[in-house]
Protein backbone atom coordinates (compact mmCIF):
# COMPACT_ATOMS: atom_id res chain seq x y z
CA UNK A 1 0.00 0.00 0.00
CA UNK A 2 1.28 3.47 -0.91
CA UNK A 3 2.23 5.68 1.99
CA UNK A 4 1.35 9.37 2.38
CA UNK A 5 2.54 11.62 -0.43
CA UNK A 6 5.15 14.36 0.21
CA UNK A 7 2.57 17.17 -0.12
CA UNK A 8 -0.96 16.96 1.28
CA UNK A 9 -4.14 18.95 0.75
CA UNK A 10 -3.55 20.51 4.18
CA UNK A 11 -0.08 21.66 3.05
CA UNK A 12 -1.63 23.32 0.00
CA UNK A 13 -4.29 25.06 2.06
CA UNK A 14 -1.59 26.36 4.40
CA UNK A 15 0.33 27.64 1.38
CA UNK A 16 -2.77 29.43 0.11
CA UNK A 17 -3.01 31.27 3.44
CA UNK A 18 0.73 32.06 3.40
CA UNK A 19 0.78 33.59 -0.09
CA UNK A 20 -2.57 35.38 0.08
CA UNK A 21 -2.13 38.98 -1.06
CA UNK A 22 1.27 38.22 -2.58
CA UNK A 23 0.01 36.52 -5.75
CA UNK A 24 -2.96 37.11 -8.04
CA UNK A 25 -6.03 34.85 -7.92
CA UNK A 26 -6.23 34.51 -11.69
CA UNK A 27 -9.52 34.38 -13.63
CA UNK A 28 -11.20 31.34 -15.18
CA UNK A 29 -13.06 32.07 -18.41
CA UNK A 30 -15.24 30.00 -20.71
CA UNK A 31 -14.03 29.21 -24.25
CA UNK A 32 -16.93 28.80 -26.67
CA UNK A 33 -14.62 27.87 -29.55
CA UNK A 34 -12.86 25.08 -27.66
CA UNK A 35 -16.15 23.89 -26.18
CA UNK A 36 -17.49 23.33 -29.68
CA UNK A 37 -14.40 21.32 -30.59
CA UNK A 38 -14.38 19.24 -27.39
CA UNK A 39 -18.14 18.70 -27.19
CA UNK A 40 -18.13 19.68 -23.49
CA UNK A 41 -17.74 23.01 -21.70
CA UNK A 42 -14.12 24.20 -21.72
CA UNK A 43 -12.72 26.74 -19.30
CA UNK A 44 -9.34 28.45 -19.38
CA UNK A 45 -7.46 29.19 -16.17
CA UNK A 46 -5.60 32.39 -17.09
CA UNK A 47 -2.53 31.84 -14.93
CA UNK A 48 -0.36 33.57 -17.54
CA UNK A 49 -1.80 36.79 -16.10
CA UNK A 50 0.06 36.13 -12.84
CA UNK A 51 2.30 39.00 -11.68
CA UNK A 52 5.51 37.54 -13.13
CA UNK A 53 3.77 36.05 -16.17
CA UNK A 54 3.57 32.45 -14.94
CA UNK A 55 2.33 30.14 -12.19
CA UNK A 56 5.86 29.88 -10.79
CA UNK A 57 5.32 32.86 -8.49
CA UNK A 58 3.05 30.73 -6.28
CA UNK A 59 5.69 28.12 -5.42
CA UNK A 60 8.56 30.59 -5.19
CA UNK A 61 6.61 32.87 -2.87
CA UNK A 62 5.55 30.02 -0.60
CA UNK A 63 9.08 28.63 -0.43
CA UNK A 64 10.64 32.03 0.26
CA UNK A 65 8.07 32.84 2.94
CA UNK A 66 8.80 29.49 4.61
CA UNK A 67 12.52 30.23 5.16
CA UNK A 68 13.94 30.95 8.60
CA UNK A 69 15.48 34.36 9.36
CA UNK A 70 18.98 32.81 9.21
CA UNK A 71 18.27 31.31 5.78
CA UNK A 72 16.98 34.64 4.46
CA UNK A 73 20.27 36.32 5.37
CA UNK A 74 22.20 33.74 3.33
CA UNK A 75 20.20 34.40 0.16
CA UNK A 76 18.55 31.99 -2.29
CA UNK A 77 19.73 30.26 -5.45
CA UNK A 78 18.01 28.19 -8.12
CA UNK A 79 18.41 26.65 -11.53
CA UNK A 80 15.72 27.69 -13.98
CA UNK A 81 14.49 27.54 -17.56
CA UNK A 82 13.33 31.12 -16.99
CA UNK A 83 9.97 31.38 -15.28
CA UNK A 84 11.01 30.00 -11.89
CA UNK A 85 14.03 32.28 -11.92
CA UNK A 86 11.87 35.30 -12.59
CA UNK A 87 9.42 34.26 -9.88
CA UNK A 88 12.13 33.62 -7.28
CA UNK A 89 13.87 36.89 -8.12
CA UNK A 90 10.57 38.70 -7.61
CA UNK A 91 9.73 36.87 -4.37
CA UNK A 92 13.23 37.37 -2.96
CA UNK A 93 13.20 41.08 -3.78
CA UNK A 94 9.78 41.49 -2.15
CA UNK A 95 11.09 39.84 1.03
CA UNK A 96 14.46 41.62 1.10
CA UNK A 97 16.63 38.66 0.10
CA UNK A 98 19.44 38.30 -2.43
CA UNK A 99 18.79 35.85 -5.30
CA UNK A 100 21.13 34.05 -7.69
CA UNK A 101 19.64 32.35 -10.76
CA UNK A 102 21.56 29.79 -12.81
CA UNK A 103 20.40 29.07 -16.37
CA UNK A 104 21.65 27.30 -19.46
CA UNK A 105 22.30 28.95 -22.82
CA UNK A 106 19.00 27.48 -24.06
CA UNK A 107 16.97 29.92 -21.96
CA UNK A 108 15.49 32.66 -24.19
CA UNK A 109 17.09 36.09 -23.88
CA UNK A 110 13.83 37.82 -22.94
CA UNK A 111 13.56 35.68 -19.81
CA UNK A 112 17.20 36.25 -18.85
CA UNK A 113 16.91 40.03 -19.19
CA UNK A 114 13.77 40.18 -17.05
CA UNK A 115 15.47 38.24 -14.25
CA UNK A 116 18.39 40.68 -14.36
CA UNK A 117 15.94 43.59 -14.24
CA UNK A 118 14.58 42.23 -10.96
CA UNK A 119 18.05 42.52 -9.44
CA UNK A 120 19.10 38.86 -9.32
CA UNK A 121 22.67 37.70 -9.94
CA UNK A 122 22.41 35.70 -13.19
CA UNK A 123 24.79 32.84 -14.07
CA UNK A 124 24.65 31.33 -17.58
CA UNK A 125 26.14 27.83 -17.49
CA UNK A 126 26.24 25.11 -20.17
CA UNK A 127 23.47 23.92 -22.47
CA UNK A 128 21.17 22.08 -20.09
CA UNK A 129 19.25 22.45 -16.86
CA UNK A 130 21.47 19.75 -15.38
CA UNK A 131 24.60 21.84 -16.03
CA UNK A 132 22.94 24.89 -14.49
CA UNK A 133 22.07 22.77 -11.46
CA UNK A 134 25.75 21.85 -11.04
CA UNK A 135 26.52 25.56 -10.60
CA UNK A 136 23.71 25.81 -8.03
CA UNK A 137 25.17 22.90 -6.09
CA UNK A 138 28.58 24.59 -6.13
CA UNK A 139 27.17 27.86 -4.78
CA UNK A 140 25.30 26.04 -2.02
CA UNK A 141 28.44 24.13 -1.08
CA UNK A 142 30.96 26.99 -1.29
CA UNK A 143 28.92 30.10 -0.45
CA UNK A 144 26.16 28.70 1.74
CA UNK A 145 23.27 29.93 -0.42
CA UNK A 146 19.86 28.34 0.19
CA UNK A 147 18.58 26.34 -2.78
CA UNK A 148 14.96 26.80 -3.83
CA UNK A 149 14.46 24.20 -6.58
CA UNK A 150 12.12 24.96 -9.50
CA UNK A 151 9.89 21.97 -8.75
CA UNK A 152 11.24 19.18 -6.52
CA UNK A 153 10.55 20.78 -3.15
CA UNK A 154 7.49 20.38 -0.88
CA UNK A 155 6.98 24.12 -0.34
CA UNK A 156 7.23 24.81 -4.07
CA UNK A 157 4.76 22.03 -4.92
CA UNK A 158 2.35 23.20 -2.21
CA UNK A 159 2.49 26.74 -3.60
CA UNK A 160 1.72 25.56 -7.13
CA UNK A 161 -1.14 23.50 -5.73
CA UNK A 162 -2.97 26.66 -4.72
CA UNK A 163 -3.85 27.04 -8.38
CA UNK A 164 -5.73 23.74 -8.16
CA UNK A 165 -7.67 24.97 -5.13
CA UNK A 166 -8.81 28.00 -7.12
CA UNK A 167 -10.07 25.71 -9.90
CA UNK A 168 -12.13 23.43 -7.64
CA UNK A 169 -13.49 26.38 -5.68
CA UNK A 170 -14.65 28.12 -8.86
CA UNK A 171 -15.77 25.04 -10.82
CA UNK A 172 -16.46 22.07 -8.53
CA UNK A 173 -18.14 20.24 -11.42
CA UNK A 174 -14.87 20.02 -13.39
CA UNK A 175 -14.33 16.54 -14.85
CA UNK A 176 -10.85 16.98 -16.38
CA UNK A 177 -7.96 19.35 -15.70
CA UNK A 178 -5.21 19.81 -18.31
CA UNK A 179 -1.91 20.82 -16.74
CA UNK A 180 1.48 21.51 -18.39
CA UNK A 181 4.06 18.94 -17.31
CA UNK A 182 7.80 19.45 -16.98
CA UNK A 183 9.58 18.68 -13.71
CA UNK A 184 6.16 18.05 -12.19
CA UNK A 185 5.85 20.83 -9.61
CA UNK A 186 2.69 22.27 -11.12
CA UNK A 187 1.20 18.91 -12.09
CA UNK A 188 1.90 17.37 -8.68
CA UNK A 189 0.54 20.33 -6.75
CA UNK A 190 -2.57 20.79 -8.88
CA UNK A 191 -3.33 17.06 -8.86
CA UNK A 192 -2.93 16.86 -5.07
CA UNK A 193 -5.32 19.79 -4.62
CA UNK A 194 -7.88 18.63 -7.19
CA UNK A 195 -7.96 14.99 -6.10
CA UNK A 196 -7.80 15.94 -2.43
CA UNK A 197 -11.18 17.62 -2.91
CA UNK A 198 -12.65 15.39 -5.65
CA UNK A 199 -10.75 12.14 -6.31
CA UNK A 200 -12.86 11.39 -9.40
CA UNK A 201 -11.62 14.44 -11.33
CA UNK A 202 -9.09 13.44 -13.98
CA UNK A 203 -5.78 15.30 -14.16
CA UNK A 204 -3.84 14.98 -17.43
CA UNK A 205 -0.24 16.11 -17.83
CA UNK A 206 0.71 17.69 -21.16
CA UNK A 207 4.21 18.00 -22.51
CA UNK A 208 6.18 18.20 -25.75
CA UNK A 209 7.52 15.19 -27.64
CA UNK A 210 11.04 16.65 -27.62
CA UNK A 211 12.88 15.91 -24.35
CA UNK A 212 9.90 14.95 -22.19
CA UNK A 213 11.79 13.93 -19.04
CA UNK A 214 8.86 13.21 -16.72
CA UNK A 215 7.07 11.10 -19.35
CA UNK A 216 10.23 9.07 -19.97
CA UNK A 217 10.69 8.65 -16.22
CA UNK A 218 7.10 7.55 -15.63
CA UNK A 219 7.41 5.04 -18.47
CA UNK A 220 10.65 3.69 -16.95
CA UNK A 221 9.24 3.57 -13.43
CA UNK A 222 12.13 5.68 -12.10
CA UNK A 223 13.73 9.07 -12.80
CA UNK A 224 15.81 8.97 -15.99
CA UNK A 225 17.87 11.53 -17.84
CA UNK A 226 16.92 12.70 -21.34
CA UNK A 227 18.60 15.00 -23.81
CA UNK A 228 17.44 18.61 -23.48
CA UNK A 229 16.59 20.12 -26.85
CA UNK A 230 14.97 23.29 -28.15
CA UNK A 231 11.19 23.46 -28.23
CA UNK A 232 8.47 26.07 -28.59
CA UNK A 233 7.52 24.90 -25.10
CA UNK A 234 10.95 25.82 -23.71
CA UNK A 235 9.58 26.14 -20.16
CA UNK A 236 8.85 22.40 -20.20
CA UNK A 237 12.50 21.53 -20.87
CA UNK A 238 15.02 20.11 -18.43
CA UNK A 239 15.31 16.92 -16.42
CA UNK A 240 13.48 15.91 -13.26
CA UNK A 241 16.66 15.01 -11.34
CA UNK A 242 17.88 11.45 -10.88
CA UNK A 243 17.49 11.88 -7.11
CA UNK A 244 13.96 13.31 -7.42
CA UNK A 245 12.27 13.11 -4.01
CA UNK A 246 8.88 14.77 -4.44
CA UNK A 247 7.38 15.26 -7.88
CA UNK A 248 8.09 11.91 -9.52
CA UNK A 249 6.28 9.99 -6.77
CA UNK A 250 3.37 12.42 -6.82
CA UNK A 251 2.97 12.45 -10.60
CA UNK A 252 3.21 8.66 -10.66
CA UNK A 253 0.44 8.40 -8.07
CA UNK A 254 -1.86 11.22 -9.13
CA UNK A 255 -1.72 11.82 -12.90
CA UNK A 256 -4.33 9.88 -14.87
CA UNK A 257 -2.54 10.28 -18.19
CA UNK A 258 0.33 12.07 -19.93
CA UNK A 259 -0.20 13.38 -23.46
CA UNK A 260 2.66 14.31 -25.82
CA UNK A 261 2.41 17.15 -28.35
CA UNK A 262 4.35 17.91 -31.51
CA UNK A 263 5.91 21.29 -32.20
CA UNK A 264 3.28 21.92 -34.88
CA UNK A 265 0.48 21.17 -32.41
CA UNK A 266 1.99 23.51 -29.81
CA UNK A 267 2.26 26.25 -32.45
CA UNK A 268 -1.39 25.70 -33.36
CA UNK A 269 -2.29 26.13 -29.69
CA UNK A 270 -0.43 29.44 -29.52
CA UNK A 271 -2.17 30.65 -32.68
CA UNK A 272 -5.61 29.68 -31.37
CA UNK A 273 -4.95 31.41 -28.05
CA UNK A 274 -4.10 34.60 -29.90
CA UNK A 275 -6.69 34.51 -32.69
CA UNK A 276 -9.70 33.11 -30.84
CA UNK A 277 -9.10 33.77 -27.14
CA UNK A 278 -7.21 37.06 -27.53
CA UNK A 279 -4.44 35.80 -25.24
CA UNK A 280 -0.67 35.84 -25.74
CA UNK A 281 0.84 32.69 -24.25
CA UNK A 282 4.19 30.95 -24.54
CA UNK A 283 4.41 27.43 -25.93
CA UNK A 284 4.21 25.77 -22.52
CA UNK A 285 1.12 27.81 -21.72
CA UNK A 286 -0.61 26.67 -24.91
CA UNK A 287 -0.34 22.90 -24.48
CA UNK A 288 -3.85 22.50 -23.05
CA UNK A 289 -5.37 24.31 -26.00
CA UNK A 290 -3.08 22.36 -28.34
CA UNK A 291 -4.23 19.00 -26.96
CA UNK A 292 -7.89 19.94 -27.39
CA UNK A 293 -7.34 21.17 -30.95
CA UNK A 294 -5.47 17.96 -31.82
CA UNK A 295 -8.32 15.78 -30.55
CA UNK A 296 -6.07 14.16 -27.94
CA UNK A 297 -8.40 14.80 -24.97
CA UNK A 298 -11.62 12.94 -24.22
CA UNK A 299 -13.77 14.03 -21.28
CA UNK A 300 -17.23 13.20 -20.06
CA UNK A 301 -17.70 16.64 -18.52
CA UNK A 302 -16.29 20.16 -18.20
CA UNK A 303 -12.59 20.64 -18.94
CA UNK A 304 -10.24 23.24 -17.45
CA UNK A 305 -7.03 23.98 -19.35
CA UNK A 306 -4.33 25.85 -17.45
CA UNK A 307 -2.63 28.61 -19.48
CA UNK A 308 0.52 28.59 -17.39
CA UNK A 309 2.70 31.38 -18.78
CA UNK A 310 3.03 34.31 -21.17
CA UNK A 311 6.78 34.97 -21.09
CA UNK A 312 7.39 34.39 -24.78
CA UNK A 313 9.87 36.22 -26.98
CA UNK A 314 7.57 38.41 -29.08
CA UNK A 315 9.56 37.90 -32.28
CA UNK A 316 9.12 34.15 -31.85
CA UNK A 317 5.42 34.72 -31.14
CA UNK A 318 5.09 36.74 -34.36
CA UNK A 319 6.70 33.94 -36.38
CA UNK A 320 4.39 31.34 -34.86
CA UNK A 321 1.28 33.45 -35.47
CA UNK A 322 2.38 33.88 -39.09
CA UNK A 323 2.84 30.14 -39.52
CA UNK A 324 6.61 30.07 -39.03
CA UNK A 325 8.91 28.89 -36.27
CA UNK A 326 7.49 25.41 -35.59
CA UNK A 327 10.80 23.56 -36.01
CA UNK A 328 14.18 23.91 -34.32
CA UNK A 329 17.71 23.09 -35.33
CA UNK A 330 20.73 22.48 -33.12
CA UNK A 331 21.71 26.15 -33.29
CA UNK A 332 18.35 27.81 -32.95
CA UNK A 333 14.94 28.49 -34.48
Distance N to C terminus: 47 Å
Unreliably modeled segments: 329-333
Radius of gyration: 18 Å
Number of strands: 10
The shape is globular
Helical residue percent band: 40-55%
Oligomeric state of shown chains: single chain
Q: What is the strand arrangement across the widest sheet?
A: 1-2-10-7-8-9
Number of discrete helical segments: 14
How confident is the prediction overall: mean pLDDT? 94
What is the makeup of the main sheet? 6 strands, mixed
Percentage of residues in DSSP E strands: 5-15%
Structural class comes to alpha/beta
Order of SSEs: HEHEHHEHEHEHEHEHEHHEHHEH
Short description:
The chain is an alpha/beta fold and 333 residues long. It has helices at 9-19, 32-38, 56-65, 69-74, 83-94, 109-117, 129-143, 154-170, 185-197, 213-220, 247-254, 263-275, 287-293, 314-321; strands spanning 28-30, 42-45, 76-79, 99-103, 121-124, 146-147, 176-180, 202-208, 257-261, 303-306.
Please give a handful of descriptors for the protein shown.
333 residues; single chain; disordered C terminus; 10 strands; 6-stranded mixed sheet; 4-stranded parallel sheet; alpha/beta
Describe the protein's architecture and organization.
The protein has 333 residues and is α/β, with parallel strands linked by helices. It is 43% helix and 13% strand. It has 14 helices and ten strands. It has helices at 9-19, 32-38, 56-65, 69-74, 83-94, 109-117, 129-143, 154-170, 185-197, 213-220, 247-254, 263-275, 287-293, 314-321, and strands at 28-30, 42-45, 76-79, 99-103, 121-124, 146-147, 176-180, 202-208, 257-261, 303-306. The protein has a six-stranded mixed sheet, with helices on both faces. Helix 6 links the parallel strand 4 and strand 5. Helix 1 (9-19) packs across helix 3 (56-65) and helix 3 (56-65) packs parallel to helix 5. The longest helix has 17 residues, at 154-170.
